[in-house]
Amino acid sequence: MHVLVTGAGGMVGRKLVARLAAEPALFGTEVEKLTLVDVVEPPVPPSLQNMATALTLDLAAEGEADRIISGRPDLVFHLAAIVSGEAETDFDKGYAINLDGGRSLFDAIRREGIREPYCPRLIFASSIAVFGRPFPEKIGDEFFTTPLTSYGTQKAICELLLSDYTRKGIFDGIGLRLPTVCIRPGRPNKAASGFFSNIMREPLNGEEAILPVEDNVRHWFASPRATVGFFAHAARMDTSVLGARRALTMPGLSALVAEQIEALRRIAGEKTVALIRREPDPDIRKIVAGWPRDFDARRASELGFEAERSFEDIIRIHIEDELEGASA
Amino acid sequence: MHVLVTGAGGMVGRKLVARLAAEPALFGTEVEKLTLVDVVEPPVPPSLQNMATALTLDLAAEGEADRIISGRPDLVFHLAAIVSGEAETDFDKGYAINLDGGRSLFDAIRREGIREPYCPRLIFASSIAVFGRPFPEKIGDEFFTTPLTSYGTQKAICELLLSDYTRKGIFDGIGLRLPTVCIRPGRPNKAASGFFSNIMREPLNGEEAILPVEDNVRHWFASPRATVGFFAHAARMDTSVLGARRALTMPGLSALVAEQIEALRRIAGEKTVALIRREPDPDIRKIVAGWPRDFDARRASELGFEAERSFEDIIRIHIEDELEGASA
Whose CA is closest to A170, among B95, B286, B291, B290? Predict the structure, then answer.
């Protein structure tokens, strides 16, 4: 099977490709050819060197989507996007990458299928940013999408295109509304959501981290491992049961910051927790207050998608996958 | 005030412009300049000849949206669209006119505002086609948009753009999800929904009409007069109460075909009703079965939008507005 991954250089993209190399059966496939695409050269796992092509390109640029689709991948993971903060400050770039980039890819698949019958499976990384406050206590599967950011708007639009193109038989699309990925590996970044990971990851490394909000803030999480698992499940699942509704809110764990901290205490002890420094930031508090806190992701759960059920599991996965089984 | 109407040559566009000429106060404005745009030359009401410009152009064509926005209209009615059936059979044309046409207009407003501060009110004709079955008994204001046609997809995408551009201060947008307009004046057309009007209009003209579905089919209606009233109300309302949720399901009348016929009987008598010929059409039945039947359009009602409350009112309005007060 020929697999294409856009945004293959990003955090989720790299983990997805690594997992595809290590456990192709999890994706219900054997990888015979792999095309990795990103705006910076994406890394290729050593075991896939002989079958992989890494391309540096901008999907929205004239002809580029046609170029990668001409290879007729059977399975497409479309992860390429600029993040929420950048899409908000750079309006043109957000729409160019997050909307036009996706549409270019979708239209290239359509053109290829007109040339010669073709209908790949396409799995799109959407986001809970398609929702905007005010919310019900738990956001259900039929709640409307009223994004409060350009990023969320662009994701919601791609979901609509995905369903329509699927209905027309252009591809077999599934949109995955991902929870906030936690614990993100790597160094702290400037995303407003970064602290949810920072206050776990940095103390586990023996370093201080800043908590800019109150302990009673609630949010919606999945580990990087569960996130890659969503893509794998979407690749192998029977899509005939989806009907016309192709965007799925992924399951996740709704947890308070206090519960995150309590889980950290149980796993790594008081000394580790003491590295969390409370430094309230009214700007971050205000941003976070607009975010979803809890979902009833019944449909995806019934379809077999799975996330963690406790924050301790999320911490353990981080220790296993990022710290080779040992915390500081 | 400078008013721009796109799709000014269509049925709703012509009625809107006529009403704007006759009752500008209803729109909360005095018209000083009027720009009418359509792909075929739109008619200009005699009383507005000296202040109106009629333009024949395609909004999605390079530079055309900039050309009409350079006149800096204060109030924009964006009605231009190709209809559901055509958008479904001509995929490229549907996306070009219904999505790219709207986005071109929105982006032209943005560019004009970057050149020199500018924030017109923009009222967009959306549709209940943004919803797709299965539905609840009554579709509420927070039900999700899962269109089952390319037309509905394009309308739902424009709603998302409208909210995001409004949030960014580019314009002050309102999207009106219009009920099926009934009784449509003119000759029968080939739209699958045409019979809802045909079975009223043709008998009132002393002519036979075909009913292709059962009497227990339920649908959602507003008269042409109420429809123009929605646009007028949206033009004059206080939009600060809308917040970020800019797409409104308009109020309407949920009626059975049997109730339509009973209303016709009460107003025009048995002889008129006898002109309705039952000729079941499985294709039309199947299409209609996928359409919304009833809404709880509470939010728009609370905001002051009004539709008819009985089908007799809808028939009387048709007789007053189209038949100069007399039926055959």
Answer: B95
